[in-house]
Amino acid sequence: LLMAGTLAYDLLTCDRNRGIADPERRIPWGRPVPRREVLAAFPDLPPERLTGGVLFADGQMYNPPRIVLSVLRAAAARGAVMANYAEVVGLRMDGNRVSGVEVEDRLGGGRFPVFARAVLNAAGPFAEPLLQRWLGRPLKRPSTYSRDACFVVRRRFAAPWALAVMGRSRDADAMLAREARHLFVVPWREFSLIGVWHRVYRDDPDRVGLTPSELERYLEEINGAYPGLGLDLADIRLWHAGLLPFGEEKTGGSELSYGKRSLLVDHADEHGIHGLVTLIGIRYTMGRGDAAKAVDLVTRKLGARTPRPPTDRLPVFGGRFGRFAELVRDLERHPRVPLAPATARALAHNYGSEASRILGYAADDPSLAEPLPGSTVLGAEIVHGIREEMACNLADLAFRRTDLATGGDPGPALEACADLAAREWGWDAARRARELAGVRAQFPRFARQTA
Length: 451
Fold this sequence. Notes:
- By secondary structure, the chain is an alpha+beta fold.
- The protein folds into three domains: about 1-55, no CATH class; about 115-310, D-Amino Acid Oxidase, Chain A, domain 2, CATH 3.30.9; about 325-450, Helicase, Ruva Protein, domain 3.
- The protein is about 35% helix and about 20% strand.
- The chain is built from 15 helices and 14 strands.
- The strands form four sheets. It has a six-stranded antiparallel beta sheet. A three-stranded antiparallel beta sheet has the order 3-4-5.
- Helix 8 packs across helix 9 (about 340-350).
- The model is unreliable at about 175-180 and about 250-255 (pLDDT under 50).
């Protein structure tokens, strides 16, 4: 039955490799895996009821924040104007029509207007609280949100595959009769991602998080499902939690159904307010299509006749290369800044065809050509993030411009990053210390003690 489901999915997504020239980057079809092969890959699995497995292939993001930056920079290259640390704090209205927004500068202080004939509210789980604040009215059918949580452990297991094991919570979306939702152990860089756990969340989106007691319960569940993992709190390097819309809530939170569609709201219909559109997305894989629908709606409302750009075929910023292996090899053999294989591969993953911009900084200043201690992040990446990617603080650099801290506290590399940032921005010792403390506060305390 599992193989039949996988085959059906493969048939429904048979065009998923359209336009991908590199055969190594194409997503292959699923295949059945014999029992002996499953046990060879995961020898700690209980063998009693195991009959075999199914190998399902999918894509994986190496660095999600850099994917976001690539989309933003692609938009900027086509005329979009970007702003960072600029919070929209209110709508400007002319009767029942939106005329723009009021923006607060979160770094320099002060407020200023931005005038517009239409406003697209695409703030994710913050979208509905913003509507309540701006309009004093919720959506007619408010969404139920799930807090999805996972954590990062600095262990890679022998098998090259991810593993799905049965957790304890029921799966309201299951088409087959199974007892619980799957939990996943997923290889990612030199780490493993463990999750995902879902819980109905009704609090302020700014307060979303995980407690140590919750992590302990999740560890107990994953260890019970796969005793061979033997994980404890000291293995957790970092946790992640985010909010996404659920569909129907069936039994007070114990059985939850995933949202099947993103939410696109024309507030002329919803609230009688013209020029305001809200988009609340479900997942990354639907993001491009959702964005196209939202922009199409705004364009129609403005009476414009702008042709839709072929965003389903255009590469994002940094995506103009043929074969990934050749890109890595070219970076290893760069005439002025040759790179070690691991550093070249990380640079290719993070910047793609734009990696040469990083190496330009390193060529001009050889001190920036070396990786920060114990990492693959070049000093040139730090300077590039400050000068070209609107980084404004150390957390931006460590979490959102490079992969320096995406797997936990990088230790001495973070100190070196702070030194470069202090040099670029002219920080004194006190400011440098505050920035370091702010970043380190985001790591689990128990993980820092074992880093």
